[in-house]
Amino acid sequence: MGSTVHPIVVIGAGVSGLTSALCLAEEGWPVRVWTAALPLQTTSVVAGAVWRPRALEPVDKTLAWGLESLREFRELARDPTSGVRMAPALSVYDPTDDLPESRGDELIPDLRPATISELPSGFGAGAHATLPMIDMPRYLDYLTRRLTASGCDIEIQPVRSLAQAVEVAPIVVNCAGLGARELVGDKTIQPAFGQHIVLANPGLTQLFVELTSRPAWTCYFPHPSRVVCGGISIPGRWDTTAIPEVSERILRDCYRIEPRLAQATVIETITGLRPDRPSVRVEREDIGSARCIHNYGHGGDGVTLSWGCAREVVRLVSADS
């Protein structure tokens, strides 16, 4: 960092905004977070969530960002207050399905094939691993506490234009997620509707995820007191109203894979809109004499990319400072 320390406004308090603000604040930058919704009201809280890399565009960068996040999550798993733990995972897939996800498999440290006897019926292939699993309400609270300790405030301040932010700070970090569509006029970003069913945890520890190119799949993520079951992605759907047929399908499929879930109490149905984009955008844009660092368009991979993208934001902010 140079001799001049400029104030920074970070727009958005989801996982990307909080992590970017935290990385900047812990590097000594004076940071304010402006947001229309508090962390526990953002789309991030609805995530499953598990770290698992996928080959998103730009592939070389997203895989590197994912690896950087893995290192951080493995450290965070040592802290019982973080909401992060290293969990046994079983992923299943159809070996005839051309999965772009497989291009990130080399980053998974202990990925190993599952035997046929270890697979649920109907699945032809699978793999075991130990992956960071993130209990999002607890994790977002952890990030918020750590951010507060670093001297950064989260302010309810909806932002309607970048000009509004650059009036206050010469450096703005845009982590608006789906809100970037209107904030910066990026029509390439679209909603992808997601829906999860949350059940009381009947004693599960291993997470399960079906890897598929289809828009519906089966997954469940067991946290200490709850299990988040999914999943679905409906591109272009802005309505966040839960779809009963989707809930029925999720529960039916999860019960079939793990019968103990059939005895568990249903706690709630949660929905959200993933910020889907053809490529993740982390780059600098000059706005007059001010600078904007964009960090959005992560789709369903915001958690997996969060620390890597946040460190990239710090590098871009520091480049000319």
UniProtKB/TrEMBL annotation:
Enzyme class, spelled out: oxidoreductase
Lineage: superkingdom: Bacteria
Q: Which residues bind D-dopa?
A: R274, G300
Q: What is this protein called?
A: D-amino-acid oxidase
What GO cellular component is one of the record's annotations?
cytoplasm
Q: Per the database record, which ranges form the FAD dependent oxidoreductase domain?
A: 8-315
Gene Ontology MF terms: D-amino-acid oxidase activity; FAD binding
- List its EC numbers: 1.4.3.3
